[in-house]
């Protein structure tokens, strides 16, 4: 695609424009709308049109990926002569609606040449007039960069759902380095993205291994290990938390663990509430201990599991948070792996759904059947699963570091704070 570069036609204006003081030297300042035009996703489609026909790019493909995954699509029936827009290489897609402003306007760029693909109806497309001022591989990072995302978030409108108009996106100001510098920046960030993708593959492979081990355990197909199937309540009870009055919470005293403090396998103490020490002396039965396994029992995070570490203590158990207490015959680490398994979690949600909000009781948790080998086999299984978890944790930490590295690089390179050698 060729055209008259905005860079050449605005060069003289840029030299004399006193309002461009925040634009790095040699960069082009322009509006998104000067670079291309928008088009809509699928229109006038009913439920019966989907599931067969031509491929279309899904909302989640756009939302989750800065680069469209060409192998992730659904199907829609398109009649001959129907007025629908086909996507093409270099197109940028934006989500137009979400429940939070932070998730509106997520972008993704098509960097593969594909034929006869369409776009879902909850996104719009942006097609560059040419690639003389903005390269698609750079657009992948530009529109997901911190500065552009902050502009999008400020523009999101709504109360229960937040929406974004095409016109407002087209009105946004952006600054662009030379094509050579764009290419260099995109290459640097792409290397980090490849490292992140490889790390994610290792995480997913490890998770698949663990799921396979747990499936064998629940179906009693682990060679040499004999398990009986018993209700969890036979070997562990679920203790509910104390009904602390939120009006009595203070900025000091003994920390109280609430549902929001339970994360994936650990306790997050960033937003902890406290209860006066003098009041809690009579509540010793609700004091948590190291290696206690706790569970969220209501709300959107019902079923979330955490383990209490020594460094988390002291902690008190709040209402709607449960603690599993062994009554003998079950190893603590084995118990933890059982209750975080997708099999146990599925049974939790079988109980939880149906009311105004998800909710599960202690007796329901105790009624769920689990495989129970002898103690020595439990310990062996728990050790194997713990080693798998350790590998997964190492790679999750690595991925988190890579994401932080990428965020820092994007902020420095996309703003021109750090310039590349070209």
Q: What would a concise description of this structure say?
A:
With 422 residues, this protein is of the alpha+beta class.
SSE arrangement:
Elements: H1 6-16, E1 28-31, E2 36-40, E3 50-57, H2 59-64, E4 73-76, E5 92-95, E6 97-98, E7 107-109, E8 118-119, E9 123-128, H3 136-142, H4 146-155, E10 157-158, E11 162-163, H5 166-170, E12 173-176, H6 179-218, E13 228-231, E14 236-240, E15 254-257, E16 273-275, H7 277-280, E17 293-296, E18 305-307, E19 316-317, E20 321-326, H8 332-340, H9 342-352, H10 362-367, E21 369-372, H11 375-415
Parallel strand pairs: 3-8, 15-19
Antiparallel strand pairs: 1-12, 2-9, 3-4, 5-7, 5-9, 6-11, 10-11, 13-21, 14-20, 15-16, 17-18, 17-20
Descriptive notes:
There is one protein chain. This protein has helices at 6-16, 59-64, 136-142, 146-155, 166-170, 179-218, 277-280, 332-340, 342-352, 362-367, 375-415; strands at residues 28-31, 36-40, 50-57, 73-76, 92-95, 97-98, 107-109, 118-119, 123-128, 157-158, 162-163, 173-176, 228-231, 236-240, 254-257, 273-275, 293-296, 305-307, 316-317, 321-326, 369-372. With 422 residues, the chain is α+β, with helices and mostly antiparallel strands. Strands 2-9-5-7 form a four-stranded antiparallel β-sheet. A four-stranded antiparallel β-sheet has the order 14-20-17-18. A hairpin with a 3-residue loop joins β10 and β11. α3 (136-142) crosses α6 and α6 runs antiparallel to α11. It is elongated. The two termini are 24 Å apart.
């Amino acid at each position: 695609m060729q055209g008259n570069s905005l860079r050449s036609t605005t060069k003289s204006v840029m030299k004399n424009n006193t309002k461009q003081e925040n634009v790095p030297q040699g960069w082009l300042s322009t509006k998104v709308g000067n670079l291309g035009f928008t088009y809509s996703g699928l229109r006038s489609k009913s439920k019966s049109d989907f599931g067969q026909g031509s491929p279309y790019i899904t909302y989640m493909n756009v939302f989750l990926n800065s680069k469209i995954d060409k192998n992730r699509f659904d199907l829609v029936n398109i009649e001959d002569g129907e007025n629908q827009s086909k996507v093409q290489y270099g197109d940028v897609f934006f989500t137009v609606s979400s429940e939070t402003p932070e998730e509106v306007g997520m972008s993704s760029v098509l960097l593969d040449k594909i034929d006869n693909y369409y776009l879902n109806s909850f996104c719009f497309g942006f097609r560059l007039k040419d690639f003389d001022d903005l390269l698609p591989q750079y657009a992948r990072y530009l529109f997901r960069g911190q500065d552009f995302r902050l502009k999008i978030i400020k523009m999101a409108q709504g109360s229960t759902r937040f929406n974004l108009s095409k016109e407002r996106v087209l009105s946004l100001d952006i600054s662009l380095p030379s094509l050579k510098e764009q290419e260099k920046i995109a290459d640097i960030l792409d290397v980090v993205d490849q490292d992140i993708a490889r790390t994610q593959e290792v995480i997913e492979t490890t998770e698949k291994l663990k799921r396979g081990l747990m499936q064998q355990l629940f179906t009693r197909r682990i060679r040499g290990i004999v398990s009986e199937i018993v209700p969890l309540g036979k070997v562990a009870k679920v203790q509910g938390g104390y009904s602390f009055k939120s009006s009595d919470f203070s900025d000091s005293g003994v920390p109280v663990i609430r549902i929001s403090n339970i994360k994936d396998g650990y306790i997050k103490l960033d937003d902890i509430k406290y209860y006066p020490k003098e009041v809690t002396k009579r509540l010793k039965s609700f004091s948590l201990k190291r290696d206690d396994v706790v569970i969220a029992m209501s709300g959107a995070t019902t079923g979330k599991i955490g383990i209490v570490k020594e460094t988390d203590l002291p902690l008190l158990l709040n209402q709607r948070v449960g603690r599993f207490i062994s009554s003998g015959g079950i190893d603590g680490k084995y118990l933890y792996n059982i209750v975080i398994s997708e099999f146990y979690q599925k049974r939790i949600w079988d109980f939880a759904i149906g009311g105004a909000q998800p909710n599960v009781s202690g007796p329901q948790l105790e009624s769920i059947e689990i495989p129970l080998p002898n103690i020595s086999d439990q310990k062996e299984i728990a050790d194997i699963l713990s080693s798998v978890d350790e590998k997964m944790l190492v790679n999750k930490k690595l991925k988190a570091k890579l994401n932080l590295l990428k965020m820092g690089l994007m902020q420095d390179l996309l703003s021109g704070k750090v310039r590349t050698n070209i």
